[in-house]
Amino acid sequence: MSLVPSVPPVPPVTLVSAQPYDFELPTQHCALVIIDMQRDFLEPGGFGDALGNDVLRLQAIVPALKTLLTACRAQGMTIVHTIECHRPDLSDCPPAKLKRGEGSLKIGDRGGMGRILIAGEPGNGIIDDLAPLPGEIVLEKPGKGAFCRTPFEALLQERGITHLLLTGVTTEVCVQTTMREANDRGYECLLVEDCTESYFAAFKEATLAMVTAQGGIVGWTAPSTNVLAAMNWNVLA
Question: Active-site residue 148, yes or no?
């Protein structure tokens, strides 16, 4: 009598209730990406504040993002923190970026928290509530998108990552750029609605609409509570 080899059971697919339809969440092949939650963008006296922006808008997402980060760590998920920054000599900052804008402060100038967008300066650090743990990826990026002149894609490939949960600031600039770059590279992306923010409410809403249009042309969006529910995480934990 021939023996039929046993086949291990296929684990059930975890689904997140999302727009424009459910998002598959393979925890072991998914990374939480936290984009540019830096002091200079979120705290009074920083670069964002100096430009006349209401930094309290960005601070409002911190509790939800902190809860999501805790849950993803508990699941053993890959965690990636990005920091927009440049070398002290600005050799990695294109002239077009360096000269952009007509404000009194530019990249490399000294602001309220040290030199603006320079690696190692106090304002360039990630806020304490979301501080990276040992072993988590901290990716310094000179551009808006996380793939631009960084080892981001190689790091994801090494870990077998196929899906991304995208969070951070600002929604329409660094977050959306990274999401579109990831989509072009074949990654399945969900933008967590209450874990991303813009200085301009209309810009955030427009971004959420754009990425989910035409059946999810760029990806999915969902509130963090839906992601946590899919992971069976107690939101009160």
Answer: no
